[in-house]
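Protocol step 4 of 6: structure prediction from sequence.
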Amino acid sequence: MTPIMARRAEPLGPAKSTPRPERVAAFRLGLSAESRAAMLLIAKGHRIAARRFKTPVGEIDIVARRRRDLVFVEVKARDILDAAAEAVTERTKQRIIAAAEFWLASHPDDAQSFIRFDVILVAPGKLPRHIANAFDASR
């Protein structure tokens, strides 16, 4: 038998730093808000097709279906609902529209669906506010 030789550990790449506490808190808040939003949609009769759908141009928080509707949902969480509403900017809308185009390209059966863009606003101690058809894809 050959004796086992001890190997010196070598770094595999740049060391990953631990995320800042405020980034971790924001990430957890986002996950919680998305879960609350998904539960609201389910209660309204939607089926969740995807959560956190990532594309090269951005992420869609929730993709849901209800009858012939295909709904792309942006979830915004802030301390108050009005602040969450103000966080849905034109840039946000364009990112979601572009990501929705990726979804449709990879799910051709959905091209026959009625497409809708919704926003769900979430704030602590408040019921989530669902704004159906919050914006459209016209540019």
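Step 5 (inspection) to follow. The chain has a mean pLDDT of 87.
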